[in-house]
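User: structure tokens for this one?
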Amino acid sequence: MEQNRFYEKRYFVHMAYHGYNYHGWQRQINATSVQQIMEESLTKLLRSKITCLGCGRTDAMVHASQYFFHFDFGPMLPSNLLFTLNKVLPDDIAVFDIIPMEGFPHAQYAAIERSYEYYIHTRKDPFLHKFSALYEEPSLDLTKMKQTVDILPKYSDYSQFCKSPDRNDDNFCNIATTKLFTNQKQDRVRFQITANRYIQGMIRVIVRRLIDIGRGKLSVDEFEAILEGAIKPKKIVVAYPQGLYLTKIKYPFLELPSGSDFIGGTNNGDDYWTEC
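Assistant:
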């Protein structure tokens, strides 16, 4: 039976998923999505039609080590819901917290900051398959890639880094921080970005340009000229999806650490990565 809104309460769900087997978060007509799995699981357990509204979209095969969605239900959830929900979910989706909210904040529109990380490995490794993106470039120029990364927060118009810029009301993003890391062997690269919002394909387009710079196929000046709109790229090319992770969502009323440290196929301790 549908719940009357007067008696409903809003819940935020803190979760993570390995996205390789899914067509993104958003429910699709002819493909399996994370939203579909969550809605079907909660509907079964709560015996009521549940709609899950997420903090944003992720592309097919993209992961989230931290993700939030909200749903509305009556005043009392089963005390063992967290346990039973994780029992019925597939192994590549996990729920960490179910949090009752004051009022009805929206998981997407109330978020003020989002962080992503992109992982690259330059030497074929079967244990990184599906966790990181393979680009067999053993001598990427990390110095020039770092120079490019440092440019990004100076700009806000990312029209030239969007797959469909004309579909948006605007293409402005306020980037707070960007960082580039590598491991001791320098055969892995980790790109980190935090902003208030992103436009379609933006991070994967940026990463693909960074790889071109590391390969020597694009200069730092040319990259900045593209950002400024002085150079119009002939086509937009995106990096592979499996290297991308949504890693942090920040709200004015809620900020939690990620429930998983094992992202990019690596336990991300301070002793593994060094900032470039």
